[in-house]
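Batch manifest, entry 17 of 40.
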Amino acid sequence: MMRSLYSGVSGLQNHQTRMDVIGNNISNVNTTGFKRGRVNFQDMISQQLSGSARPTEEKGGVNPKEVGLGMTVAAIDTVFTQGNLQSTGISTDVAIQGNGFFLEKNGERSFYTRAGAFGLDRDGTLVNPANGYKVQGWMAREIDGEMVLRTSASTEDLIIPVGSKDPAKATQNVNFACNLNKNTPVIPENATEAERTKGTWATEFKIYDSFGNAHNLAVNFERVPDNPNQWRATVQVDPDNADYTQTRVGLGTTDGMENSFLVNFDNTGTLQSVTDTAGNVSNETGEIILQTSFTVPESNADADGNPLRQTLNINLGTIGSQINTITQSASQSSTKAFYQDGYTMGYLENFKIDSSGVITGVYSNGTNRTIGQLAMATFTNQGGLEKAGDNTYVESINSGVANIGVSGVAGKGTLLAGALEMSNVDLTEQFTDMIVTQRGFQSNAKTIQTADTLLETVLSLKR
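Output type: structure tokens
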């Protein structure tokens, strides 16, 4: 009877533990990134009244007789199933879809979390605004004018430089493409203004100098008389401004060149070659690139007193190609510049995070620059992590060391900006577990009550 008393006590105590876990789950039903707990029971040791016996020729074997001495908690697991994603529209909110954790640091101590409700502090550092822990990742470095990420390096704080400047960049490359109409009339001698307009395909495109000032790059194409597959192109920067007329175009150099060149096509209308005013002929294969230079207004003169000249490349396309290349066909002219890589100065106005965690800054001048990338961590045994409060976990001796890398690699999930992962607590399941736990608790209480009645009966035998 004493055994049943203490078995009932163990049942009461451990069902209370299960109820505590269920209560914690329900209290965190709306906690971002929360992972529910689950209690598993197991029986305790048993008292053996008699052992087992092997079969003999006369009789069969006998099983052992054992009385269980109660139950205990086998494990309290953290269930890392995926929670539903809730759209918030906030750019600093990030949800993980799949395996992995965000990495945060408080000094040198690392914490791991599924809750991606981040924000910026006054210094632009990406942090968990609830506790100030700094979100970890990799900052991009500018190398030869290109923003490069080194995700093999140690993680660092992510800083979003809101309001920072993106300095102006002079145009270095301009790409032309599409078609010149084979049926464009040749401009006669002593042509009228109307005849010259009909015989000219004029293109204009905005380019920038080193100060960020915009200029108008005008390239006019006219058919060459007595050569059916040749056009003369005239280049002029800011043609409406008489002060900026010193435009020169050449193959490999602009020194001593004028501002025009000849474009040659073969009988199929594909680009064949270019000849500059010095008689230089372009390469036989590959892309045709001409250098163009113009005087930058209001700039300091060089050591010889000459005004600063800016040089850029005009790319007409690939010889023999029909893709992103100037062609000549009996179809409406459509040749124009479609790309240039210069821009004026801008300020960082916004940023966005893609599915791989790359943070891209959006500047007021229309440019996008890579700022950094979020780090993610996975573990061999994520169930071995210890909860550290504030929706975070820390490594334990059974979780394994954090494998830190980028999303989508080595089993890591993908990221979704503007969303948060909701708790994976299912209220229907929790309420059902609560009923089962309550009945288990009541049953164990009844065991104690019945054992007490038996003891009372024994005590009353002497009366």
